[in-house]
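Key result, reporting period 2: structure in, sequence out.
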């Protein structure tokens, strides 16, 4: 039997960066809120006995694409088996787990029976045997994979995580069917999605990760799957608290223009708001370990005269229910921060843009410029591609986003980074273009 001490509940802190000053009649207030969680350690709490009695506090499901294309070349399926076995080795004893094979339908590879196994030496060995028996064949219907995963993880406790690997397009489901599955699963578990090789659709994989509050990435070479799966599983095991919601209160007459996560990656949360009381809404942020994230908030407040001041927004961290809905009565906030608005006629006060706000405004524009530039390139719009990718090069350089700058340099020849002058490369490796597109939302933290 495995034994673990109960992990302490993480402590949350929230810090606001903004220029609160507005000119007379000014209405838009921008702020960056840095949320930090510390002291949670790893999750797990009460592992269940090796015999399987009880309910595990955490659950992990690994979804392996077993469609026919995974055998071309055979290294993809071989890499997927090895990566899944390595991921299971990183699952702590006592955590619930399962493996799902995905084709035009979803099949429980291990343990079967609509349940989770409890991680231990014996169950890992049996899962390894089941992995060796995996065979490829059939099509791709990712929505069915996710629905089965949601059913399996409903047997787990608060931390529910999935890793999804695919090598192809979702050809055996309509986009509407996949969207419906994502809507049904949202709030039930988080999911990291990976595309192996270069025959999959970037927008499908990033859509899955965005909807299920996970990460998306490309693993162009199957040899890299083992290290990537291990990192993802270790990160999932490091989560200490689930279903954290960011609650936003605004005063009468004010409205939220947008709320975006801007670090470690850009993710628009605006449309995920769930009302939680008068002038208050909750945005889901998923599970947290020891980490820090930044959020860019824009609120439109009623215009006011010189010398007036108001509370423009109150940001709180709470434990929420599925899909960001508050769990039970109004919860006590884990932490909170205040966003202010002050009207002044001092030009030197209201003119400067807060450095954090300026930085993340640029990072959001960078992600958008890359997406639009690549779309223009694919459609044959050379002028549009040059303009957008040139702007992306300029933004990546000025913000210190060196990794994105390196990826851009594989798609364009940089003539002058400062002015955004570029030339489209005549030949671009498909893997390089897909890597740039997949990682376009990754940001760098502002230097404070």
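The corresponding designed sequence is given below.
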């Amino acid at each position: 039997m495995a034994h673990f001490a109960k992990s302490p509940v993480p402590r949350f802190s929230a810090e606001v960066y903004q220029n609160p000053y507005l000119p007379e009649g000014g209405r838009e207030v921008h702020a960056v809120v840095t949320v930090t969680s510390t002291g949670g350690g790893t999750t797990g709490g009460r592992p269940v006995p090796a015999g399987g009695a009880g309910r595990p506090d955490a659950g992990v499901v690994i979804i392996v694409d077993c469609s026919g294309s995974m055998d071309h070349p055979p290294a993809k399926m071989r890499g997927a088996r090895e990566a899944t076995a390595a991921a299971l080795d990183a699952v702590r004893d006592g955590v619930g787990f399962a493996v799902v094979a995905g084709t035009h339908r979803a099949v429980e590879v291990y343990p079967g029976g609509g349940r989770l196994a409890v991680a231990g030496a014996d169950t890992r060995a049996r899962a390894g045997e089941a992995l060796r028996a995996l065979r490829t064949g059939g099509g791709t219907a990712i929505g069915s994979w996710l629905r089965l995963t949601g059913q399996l993880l409903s047997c787990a406790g608060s931390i529910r995580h999935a890793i999804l690997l695919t090598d192809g397009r979702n050809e055996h489901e309509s986009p509407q069917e996949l969207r419906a599955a994502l809507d049904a699963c949202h709030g039930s578990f988080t999911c990291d999605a990976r595309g192996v090789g270069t025959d999959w659709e970037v927008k499908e994989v990033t859509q899955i990760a965005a909807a299920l509050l996970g990460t998306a990435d490309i693993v162009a070479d199957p040899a890299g799957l083992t290290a990537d799966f291990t990192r993802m599983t270790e990160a999932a095991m490091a989560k200490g608290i689930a279903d954290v919601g960011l609650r936003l209160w605004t005063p009468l007459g004010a409205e939220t223009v947008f709320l975006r996560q801007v670090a470690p990656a850009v993710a628009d949360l605006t449309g995920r708001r769930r009302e939680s009381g008068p002038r208050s809404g909750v945005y889901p942020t998923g599970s947290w370990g020891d980490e820090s994230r930044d959020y860019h908030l824009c609120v439109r407040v009623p215009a006011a005269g010189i010398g007036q001041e108001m509370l423009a927004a109150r940001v709180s961290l709470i434990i929420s229910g599925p899909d960001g809905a508050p769990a039970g009565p109004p919860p006590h906030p884990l932490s909170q921060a205040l966003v202010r608005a002050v009207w002044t006629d001092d030009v030197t006060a209201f003119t400067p843009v807060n450095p954090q706000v300026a930085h993340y405004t640029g990072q959001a524009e960078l992600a958008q410029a890359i997406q639009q530039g690549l779309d223009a390139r694919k459609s044959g719009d050379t002028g549009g591609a040059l303009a957008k990718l040139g702007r992306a090069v300029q933004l990546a350089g000025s913000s210190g986003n060196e990794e994105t700058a390196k990826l851009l340099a594989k798609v364009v020849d940089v003539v002058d980074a400062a002015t955004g002058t570029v030339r489209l490369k005549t030949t671009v490796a498909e893997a390089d273009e897909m890597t740039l597109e997949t990682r376009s939302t990754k940001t760098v933290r502002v230097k404070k």
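The first strand starts at residue 11 and ends at 17. Confidence is low (pLDDT under 50) at residues 1-7, 42-53. This case is discussed further under Risks and Mitigation.
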